Amino acid sequence: MDAFDVKILDCLQHSGRMSNVEMAESIHLSPPQCLRRVRALEEKGVIRRYAALVSPSQVGLNVMAFVALSLDRDQFRRVREVEKVIMSFPEIIECFTISGDFDYLLKVVGRDLKSLSQFLTDRLMQVPGVAGVRSMICLEEVKPLAPLPVDLNNL
Fold first, then answer.
1. What number of H helices and E strands is found in the chain?
2. Where is the HTH asnC-type domain (predicted)?
3. Who contacts 44 (Cβ-Cβ below 8 Å, separation ≥6)?
4. Which helix (H) or strand (E) element contains residue 64?
5. What is the pTM of this model?
6. Nearest-10 Cα torsion for 111, 117, 118, 119
7. Contact 21, 31 (CB under 8 A)
8. Contact 137, 112 (CB under 8 A)
9. What is the assigned CATH class of domain 3-52?
10. What is the pLDDT of residue 131?
11. Topology of 56-137 in CATH?
């Protein structure tokens, strides 16, 4: 990657709807060169996908929680099965394996506290292999998803 690739990533992270011509103009490349570089970044997996960032509260998802999940050590051979189930729940919008006292950290959304509680109790905690969960309700989103700080010094 070079400085142009970093500029492309910056443009796309801040304004994913920017046209190729606008981006090429802003980073001082020809539109064909810019498009070629974007496609190369996509093929290499640097750009994973394109998406719109939707406001949760505007679509009725008024509660967000971080849920620490631990697996039953005797069932650890089922870890990939548990992950498939976790990935199938639309309420879980992010999932990370973590070190420490828990095995996963989940970001979960719900309409309200009652629906969140029902999801945790009736669905997530019923997944075979799940030993325990600890939820932390998000009171306020201070810094929503932000662009990655990509620069040449990190590469």
1. 5, 4
2. 1-62
3. none
4. strand 63-71
5. 0.86
6. 70
7. yes
8. no
9. mainly alpha
10. 94
11. Alpha-Beta Plaits (3.30.70)
